[in-house]
Amino acid sequence: MLKHTLILHNILMQTDKNPGNNFQIIWQYINYLDYFYFAETLGHSTDHLRTKMNKTTEAVPSYNSNDIETHRPRKNISYFHNKCWSLFSQRLISIKVFVIYVSLANIFVHSLDHYLGSQITAIEKQFNLQSKSSGILISINDVGFICSVLVLGYLLKNCHRPRVLAITNVTVGLAILICALPYFITPHPKWNTNQNNNGANRTMWTDFKSTQDPALNTSIECNLMEEESFTGSSTIGYFFIFIGMLLIGVGKAARFPLAIAYIDENVDEAHTGGYVGILNGMNCFGPVVVFCLGGYFSKQYVTLEKTSLKPSDPQWIGAWWLGFLTFGFAAILMSVPLFLFPRKLKENENVPEKKKTLSFKDMIQTFYNMAKNPLLILILGHIGLIIFSASGTLPFIPKYFETQFKWTSWKTNIVVSTTFVLMSSIGMIVGGVITSFYKMDLRKCLKFSMVLVTFDLFLVWIPIFIHCPQTELEVTDFLQRYADSPTPVTLQQDLNQLSCFQISSLKLQCNEHDYEPVCGADGRSFKSPCYAGCQYHNIKTNVCW
């Protein structure tokens, strides 16, 4: 059928040159084609019709039987490939474009731990997490990666690598969306703003249950049930983010080995290092992109509603979930082009076959031989310690600046991203120039690296002595003044000192999870307006009464 279609196509291409003659040829050929299939259906001989059809095609000067082989689809292209081939030009199926697609996808896949670090303060505030809990969320990504990278790398050694990369993109994209799910299924923080007689904005502390005290003839809000609900929401939010980050680590485990293997199979050995270097170099820009976007999302309030709060307020929570939505959909979208790449690029079919992959037994033997090489073990240990240090430092740098120097989240993320890309670029350029200028061999490079690591260790210790004085929240001293009080303080006697803790007859207490530091009239700091005994809080001056 393909042959007859190409013949008619060639006849139509010649119609403009000789319309009358070619029209007769088309009509005659169609009639012969009709008779041909009719006779073939009845089981009659079709030799005479074949002869007449061949004579008809000889009248078409542009027809060449070799064209049939030229237009025939490649056998190694799948059904899905054939459907999209007309939309996705063959010029875009190349190793250069493959490296670009994988590099762009890696920005959204391999930098999620850095984005989580840029939003860790907001997540801790919304779900009341401690630093050790948020540290587990960041590290579980690497745990999933380490536990699955060898297994997946071995099981997927003979797979269709571009499609597996696309599937991992989709898997990681869905896992990223799972991290944003807690925002939609848990309660959002709410702050009620009121106006006093002077028109100043005040925030009413509303974490108390409304209870009528006949003696005081006033309502005191003390919501004890809210703490239990808040704890449940924190557990749910922590669980979904934990599962999402674990799946992200597992999903990205197979990406780097498969991408390098695909490049190695489709490129000459002389050019493999260049493409792998481009892939690694593009990965360095991932943290910069996510920190910049994290700074923008931190300037938006978590509910995307207008509020009187400012990013500098302690109770401000940035829109941390927006980044997960953005990166999740972007990762899924970037998987579409990877589905269209073949198992082996046609332009590189002449690349010689590489050595066959190792069996599981051979892989174990290879690891054993590597373990007996002391120099290799020391180098790997050195790299492991550097990665260990960076994995614990970089995600928590934004939180360090926010807590120690009272910077806003968006400002911290912008400064960290700018410093990271600037220092990384300078380090790579200077390191390359020094090693090239002095023509360092392996031994000299190791010595040079040892000197730099020692200097880096010295610099790491400096921030330990550079910090702001620790602010003490004097909650115990405040409560001690009322420990011997036999009766609760009345609202008329001391409104500014009123607190749930002082109303012992009602057996009420402040919510220990609330963190909104305020400054009392005596200059001391309290964890929240409830601990300070305040009913109103001026968010502009951060003073309560």
Number of structurally distinct domains: 3
Number of helical elements? 23
**Poorly predicted sequence stretches spanning 5 or more consecutive residues:** 11-23, 60-77, 192-229, 474-508
Describe the sheet with the most strands.
4 strands, antiparallel
CATH-assigned fold name of the largest domain: Growth Hormone, Chain: A
Q: In the CATH hierarchy, what is the superfamily of the largest domain?
A: MFS general substrate transporter like domains
| Helix content, binned percent | 55-70%
Instruction: Assign the CATH architecture of the largest domain.
Output: Up-down Bundle
Mean pLDDT value: 69
Structural class: mainly alpha
- The assembly state of the depicted protein chains is single chain
Alpha-carbon Rg, integer: 35 Å
Strand order of the largest sheet: 1-2-7-8
Beta strands, count: 8
Strand and helix layout:
Layout: H1 2-13, H2 19-42, H3 47-57, H4 66-71, H5 79-85, H6 95-109, H7 112-118, H8 120-127, H9 131-155, H10 161-185, E1 192-195, E2 201-204, E3 211-213, E4 218-220, H11 225-253, H12 255-266, H13 269-283, H14 285-298, H15 320-333, H16 335-339, H17 360-371, H18 374-393, H19 397-405, H20 409-437, H21 442-461, H22 475-480, E5 518-519, E6 525-526, H23 529-532, E7 536-538, E8 543-544
Antiparallel strand pairs: 1-2, 2-7, 3-4, 5-6, 7-8
Helix pairs in contact: 1-2, 2-3, 6-13, 6-15, 7-9, 7-14, 9-11, 10-11, 10-12, 10-15, 14-20, 19-20
